[in-house]
Amino acid sequence: MLSGSFIELKQGLKKLPGIGEKTATRLAMYLIRMPKDEATGLGEAIIKTVSSFSNCSICNILSDVEPCIFCTDSQRDQRSLCLVEDTQDAYLIEDTNEFKGRYFVLGNLLSPMDGIGPNEINFPLLQEFLAANPVEELILALSPSVEGESTINFLVNQLQDKVDKITRLSTGLPFGGDMEYATSRTLTTALQRRYSADK
Ligand SMILES: [Zn+2]
């Protein structure tokens, strides 16, 4: 009979993406059979890393320094701001080497049915950001899903008088598809072929 802590470990692993019941059991079993120092080292690395990351108070990106490296790097193009849903999306765009400006992480996409309104997409913090750091171009790098589209409409309506140019990624991304699954090449093309978001 397996103990409560083993079950707890298994349930924790099951919360990770792509891990089902069987894999979670196999991984938990693997961990208890691993050399003790390796397994506890992994646990310590999780604790250390997770506790050192928090949201940047300026751009909301998850970072292990405050403010984040993007907000403090004067070499970055201060005239353009790329809006993304998640921290992960910012790093995907960063990997394309196509964008040299700053980022802002919304954290969510608008979804009134799920109670996600302007405050839940950090719109007040975005307004603060733009007041302190006026930009010439705002790139809305959001998934072209229903929620992404309504977020784009909302942001264009709210910000078109405050920012010269608001653009969105080209339709290289599949509708409803997550940026996470876009290849770097697709994302590069989508960035290069961005177009005006206010129609
Ligand atoms: Zn930042």
Concise account of the structure shown:
With 199 residues, the chain is of the alpha/beta class. The protein has eight helices and seven strands, in the order αααββαβαβαβαβαβ. A hairpin with a 6-residue loop joins strand 1 and strand 2.
- According to CATH, the fold-level topology of the largest domain is Dna Topoisomerase Vi A Subunit, Chain: A, domain 2
Envelope shape: elongated
Structural class: alpha/beta
- Helices and strands, in N-to-C order? HHHEEHEHEHEHEHE
Question: What is the CA-CA span between the terminal residues?
Answer: 63 Å
According to DSSP, the number of beta strands is 7
Q: What would you say the CATH architecture of the largest domain is?
A: 3-Layer(aba) Sandwich
Rg, Å, rounded? 20 Å
Low-confidence stretches: none
What's the mean pLDDT score?
91
Strand order of the largest sheet: 4-3-5-6-7
Instruction: Give the cofactors and ligands.
Output: zinc ion
Largest sheet: 5 strands, mixed
Q: What would CATH call the class of the largest domain?
A: Alpha Beta
Tally of helical segments? 8
Helix content: 40-55%
What is the strand and helix layout of this fold?
Elements: H1 4-14, H2 21-33, H3 36-52, E1 54-55, E2 62-63, H4 69-72, E3 80-84, H5 87-96, E4 102-105, H6 123-132, E5 137-140, H7 146-159, E6 165-168, H8 184-192, E7 195-196
Helix pairs in contact: 1-2, 5-8
The chain binds zinc ion.
Residues 56, 58-59, 61, 67-68, 70-71 line the site of zinc ion.
